[in-house]
Here is the input.
Amino acid sequence: MKSLKIGICGWGNVATGMFNALHDNVDAIKQNSGCSFNIEVIGARRDNPKCNPGNTKIVRDIFEVCNHDIDVVVELIGGVDVARELILKAINNKKHVITANKAVIYHHGDEIFTAAKEQGVKVLFESAVCAGTPIIKLLSEELAANNITKISGMLNGTSNFILSNMEEGSEFEPTLALAQKEGYAEPDPAFDIEGMDAAHKIGILSSIAYGSPLPPEDFYIEGITHIEKDDFTYAADMGYTIKHLAVAKLERNSLELRAHPALIKVSSHLANLKGVRNGMELDTDLIGKIHIAGSGAGQESTASGLISDLIHLSNCPNVDSSQKEQQKSVHELSVFGDLVFQYYFYLDAEDKPGVMASITSLLASKKVGIESIVQKEDRGKDSVPIILITDPFKENDHAELQKELLGLDSVKAIRSIRIEAE
Ligand SMILES: NC(=O)c1ccc[n+]([C@@H]2O[C@H](COP(=O)([O-])OP(=O)(O)OC[C@H]3O[C@@H](n4cnc5c(N)ncnc54)[C@H](OP(=O)(O)O)[C@@H]3O)[C@@H](O)[C@H]2O)c1
Here is the structure.
């Protein structure tokens, strides 16, 4: 029986979840993997009333964990600066590291992997992206024989929960309040609904699949706060729904990195993944499209990913998969403004003759083609919604077109959403 000696740093939600899962599922873990794990020490600056660590040694200074006779430090404190310092100390003490911390990997991944390589230890982070839903080792090992041309999906449970509810007819604000009540959104939800969380995750996946740096160079990030319930109705009329998509796409040796709302076909696999779960689609050359969906948060799901890293470490302590991405060629990052999208525009326009003509002639003057333009039903107000779907054109021209459309006398309000090409 292979066994590992573990030190845990942090004693919160995820740490206690892993502690309990290692205890409750000990037989399944032994039977499925032939491994056993002994928690030798826990670094907890205070007790956690929700979990009794029994006879396991507790130290109040998390950094002291790295000095114990252990094989691996499991970093579960979260945050960036102290976590970085702790991980580097563990590495310098020649301990392997497992972390669920996407922020520290996103901001300091390259530094951490370089240090680990120098010291001959591994840094594993399966739970840092989509918790226990397997994606990190899937990309770096099981799919390593493939050229992966695109990774796309809903990587933030809060945003997918809110948009799924809006699709069913709810407004944004009460849905956000519901998400907070149900524990799907933080009291300060900005990181999730402004797109940063999804951006962190796709940045990490891109580093594995395409060797892009951590932290990545700046890439395009937009959240879901400007989406309206009515957009779902208009999108559905044309066979689309709206998702917050995080995308890493390799095209002509150029890498697109972006996270923003997008119209996608209702018939697509991703369109049907509703609620708080995460879902991804991978375009591969040898096995075609692969779909993965699962819980992207929660202590049990995260424990599953952490234990999968422990098993991996136990089975192959000498194979340095965490540094694989460093060997890939680094692709040039696309300039977001050079990308080409079709766009959905919602225009709130005065209900008077000549409005449609003024819109279509402005688009013609800008050489932007129109796939469809529809004036929706009169809402009993002095304005009507006009839904415009353009032909593909450059992102660089998008903001200017939007500004000029809003400058038309008859147009009172405007918003737009990119359409994701299939
Ligand atoms: N929760 C999830 O569903 C989930 C899913 C995937 C990944 N993760 C990641 O897992 C990690 C842990 O998350 P969590 O939900 O378990 O957080 P948490 O419940 O807030 O627990 C964090 C623990 O770390 C301790 N800690 C924080 N900063 C510290 C410091 N500077 N020195 C010493 N101890 C410190 C905290 O101590 P105090 O209690 O004294 O503050 C607490 O015990 C994060 O990186 C998170 O992003 C979480």
